Structure formats: C-alpha cells, structure tokens
Amino acid sequence: MHKHPQHRLLRWRTGAAALAATLAASALLAVPAAQANEPSDPPAVQQMPAPAPGFPLPTQHTQQAFDPASDFTSKWTRADARQIMAQSDSTVAPGANSMSPDVTMPEIPQDFPAMNDDVWVWDTWSLTDENANQISYKGWDVIFSLVADRHAGYGFDQRHWNARIGYFFRKTNADPAKDKWNYGGHLFLDNTSIGNTEWSGSTRLMQGNHVNVFYTATTFYDVAERNAGGGGIAPDAVIAKALGNIHADQNGVTFDGFQHTKLLEPDGKMYQTKAQNAGFAFRDPYTFVDPAHPGKTYMVFEGNTAAKRGDYQCKAEDLGYRPGEPHAESVTDVQNSGAYFQTANVGLAVADNKDLTKWSFLPPILSGNCVNDQTERPQIFIQNENGKNKYYLFTISHQFTYAAGMRGPDGVYGFVGDGIRSDYQPMNNSGLALGSPTDLNLPSESPEAPTPNQNGRQFQAYSHYVQPGGLVQSFIDNVNGVRGGSLSPTVKINFRNGVSQVDRNFGRNGLGPFGYLPTNVRVGGEGLYK
What distance in Å separates the CA atoms of residue 119 and residue 485, rounded to the nearest whole number? Predict the structure, then answer.
C-alpha cells in the first residue's frame, strides 16, 4: 500500500523530477481490495486540547457504534462548537489569524496559477473505487470538477447556477509540480442530465470500464435573470446517478454512454424539502462500502432537518451542556437568538440493489441543529488505529452558516466514531480540522464582499476533499481580493485518535503542488506506465 512521501514532499527546490519518479515508482503499486483507507500519519501530539477557562466543556461523546439502520443521530452541539472560540486567540491584532497553526491552512500565494483559461473550477473529486482508493486508469489519473465558462458573460459568483461536471486527466507519471491537467470537457452531453445544472458528487469505477457518477441534479428556473444579477426562484434538487463508460488510449481519456437515473429526493420527514424551506440543502452524494457490513453500499449526503423553516425548536441536547455547566446557555436564550434557523445534518441512505439504482433513506448520522446550517460534501474515511477501524466523518462548512452565538472558519470539520452511525466525537473537541486563516474575533462575512479589516485569506480555499494518506484538496475562492476558480495547493493533515495537525513539513511550508490528487491503485493494464 502506498504511503505519500511524508514530511518531505519535495521541499520543492530542484526536486520536482525526483518527486515524479518517486510517485511513479512507489505511489502506484497495486493495492488489494481495501478494508480501510490508506491512513494518515499521526500528529505529533494525540491528546485533545485542554479546557479553556471561561468556556463550557464540550459534550461528552462515547464514539460508540450503532446499527446503521437504527434511529440514533449524533449531535454536533453548541458546547462542542464553542470550543472553536475557546481554542482561538483573543489577543491577536485585528485581521491576523486567531486559530492554532495545527488547524490552519498555510497561506496560498496571491499570484496563484489558473488551472484552466476557459473554465472556472471548484468542487473536485477523484475517480475512486468503493473503498475510496484513487484510481489510475490505463496510465491516466482522472479527476472531476464543477466547471463554468469564464467567458460566457456572467461573473465568478454566478457560477453556481451555470455549473456542469467537467473532467481532467494527466499521465500518472506526470510531474505534479509543473505538468498541467488536460481538460476533457463536460462529462455529460448537453441537455442529457437530470436538471439543468450539475452539482457535486462522487465517481466510482465499476466492473470493466463502467463508471457510476453520483451527482446532485439541480434545476434553476431563472438562470438568465440570475446571471443578470436578479433571480430568486428556489431550485429543485435531487440525487441522481449516471452509468457510463470510460475509455483511455495514448491520447487521453474519454467517456460515453451515460444513462441517468433519479435516486433520491427529500422526504420531508427526515430530510427537509423545498416546500418546507426554499433554501433547503439536499446534495453531494458520496457512496462507499463498509467492511463491518459486507455486501451493502451506503451513501452519505448533505441535508437539513425536516421541518418548515423557522418551526424547529432548539433542544437541550442540541446545546449539549453538561449538568451544572457554569458557562452554559439556556434553551430559551438560544431559541430567542434565532438559532433554530440553522438545521444542518448529514444524511445516510442504503442501496437496495446491486445496480445501485434503488435506495432507501436511513436517519441522519449527524445533526448540527441550532449550530450550523450547512454540512457540505460529507465523506466517510475509515482508518485503522491500533488494530481497530475508526470512522472519520469529514464535512465542510462556511463561517456565515453558523447559528447566532457561534463562530468558525470556512474549512473542514471532522468527527470520529466506531462505525458509520456513531456517537461521533468532534475532532479536536470542536470539530474543526482545517480552516482558512481567519480572525474569529471579528464578525463573520461572505467571500463575495469581505471587509478590509479581516484576514485577506479567510476565504482562500473551500470545498475540501480528504484523500488517502490525509492529503486535502480544495479550490481557491478569494486570496486577498483576487478571486479564484482554480485548484488550491494540496495540504496534508495528520490525524489519529480524533486529533489533527497540519503537516507543515509537507511540500513547501505546508503547501504541496496545486491540484495534487495522486492515485494509489492502478486499473486497466500497463497503459502509459511503461
């Protein structure tokens, strides 16, 4: 099994060729069917942060596993999320980074390169198998991204309702520090997908040359109006898949033959519908198999707790304070703050047939009610620790989607337990695993209009995707006022026992190559490896 070159991914200098050779020689050894992801390296310290004076203790979580079909839903509580501020430095100068370097992404240079001159690129994922191994197909690495036309006349922030899934490929033995990804175009033919816009998902290589693309099918009814600066009709959203074929030769990679199937739409009982909330979230399907439940395929996705918007009542278990906690909030005060508008959850579904065309909802595995309103692009990362599989649930969220009284950066949030459905322990006690540099002492903002008082890189990267070995890929949004639309430098987080640490010995001061998504399993023969 491949381990990424740890603690020394180049230090770049003149070692780019050496890195390429290392990857070609050692990183692409055939891997048997995995029972867990390729693990990350352990952090230097594996103890949870100590309690901070003046803040409540986090909720006690057992990490205990439950049957995936049971009705237990773990809670990311306000007591947990307040640990983010407890671990933030209140004495930094305005606009500095107030968080620990252990959970802060290194600063991206302002003169970052464009990944492609014709399309903006954001949410990105790899060609994988059911165990989240990243697949090299016949000597080509393949990734999938949401893309939008840079030259169509609309702006970067209008990309969401013009999004299509595009794909990129490059030779597996390419030098990731200098060889660009080749853009293959839109994955699906025009007007063939379900809906008029394609949002994030995941792509699995099936038997032979078949691929299943799980994606969010969104339908906007006012695209032209939105592109002109107006709009406001809520879109429809369903989870869909497309079964097609991948082909590769000496010239590159192509796809064809896609047949689209609608899989799931929210039920209004566990997962909020458009009728209940025009701003509902139902997206980002990620499928996988669980070694603890052979023969079953599961899906995690982003959802919201079912209820008419504004009807949710914050509960004591959403707050999660220990009995007698002197720094606890009252349920009444939290409810009166309007925190009930934030009802994020991570949903779970199970496939009912081997073709993966029929699925059934299961109860959410995590809720952030009265804490946050978005738990986007969830992933399950299974890592063996001391002879036992530990299940890491990673998700991403924005600072501006937190509930009243809560504060946190754009970035990766993680939770660890003993199974898919667990009493998840938030990583680092707070949930925060990797954030963009942010001064949490200042009010939250959005990337479209940040104030000049904040850290100029508070929105530098988003839509993080955790890869085997703890590598983390994201896209560039706003670096000190320069808007992005390209893939960020890959970073590396080391994590064990629910504690994470940014590896600043990786790459150059913690930043690896831009758009580095290395494969660890080869499929389809020698191809271009020779």
Answer: 8
How far apart CA 371 and CA 358 sit, in angstroms, is 32
- Determine the Cα–Cα distance for residues 426 and 122; give it in Å rounded to an integer: 26
* 67 is annotated as an active-site residue: no
Phi-psi region of 23 (alpha: psi -120 to 50; beta: other; left: phi over 0): alpha
pLDDT bin (cut points 50, 70, 90) of residue 526 is low
Long-range pairs, 252-256, Cβ under 8 A, ≥24: 252/140, 252/169, 252/182, 252/184, 253/137, 253/140, 253/142, 253/167, 253/169, 253/184, 254/184, 255/167, 255/184, 255/187, 255/211
Q: Any idea of the CA torsion for 270, 276, 279, 283, to the nearest 10 degrees?
A: 30
Annotated catalytic residue 376 = yes
Output the average pLDDT for the chain: 92
- Residue 222 contacts residue 216 (beta carbons within 8 Å): no
Summarize pLDDT for 426-470 with one digit per residue, the tens.
999 999 999 999 999 998 888 887 777 899 999 999 999 999 999
Catalytic residue among 38, 284, 290, 376: 376
pLDDT above 50 for 104: yes
- Catalytic member of 38, 80, 123, 141: 123
How far the first Cα of the chain sits from its last, in Å, is 20
- As a whole number, mean pLDDT of residues 87-105 equals 96
- What pLDDT does residue 503 have? 98
The C-alpha atoms of residue 277 and residue 312 are separated, in whole angstroms, by: 12
Instruction: Please classify residue 453 by burial: count the beta carbons closer than 10 Å to its beta carbon, then call 0-12 exposed, 13-18 middle and 19+ buried.
Output: exposed
Residue type, position 193, single letter: S
Instruction: Give φ, ψ of 206 to 5 degrees.
Output: -100, -160
Tokens of residue 264, six digits: 């799931």
Of residues 314 and 8, which shows the higher confidence score? 314
Q: Which residues, 6 or more positions from 107, have their beta carbon under 8 angstroms from its beta carbon? A: 437, 457, 460
Cβ pair 132, 462 in contact under 8 A: no
If you ran DSSP here, which 8-state letter would residue 389 be given?
Answer: E
In 3-state terms the chain splits into helix, strand, coil percentages (rounded to 5) of 10, 40, 50
Higher pLDDT, 35 or 4: 35
Instruction: Give the pLDDT confidence score for residue 444 in this predicted structure.
Output: 87
**Residue 447's pLDDT is what?**
84
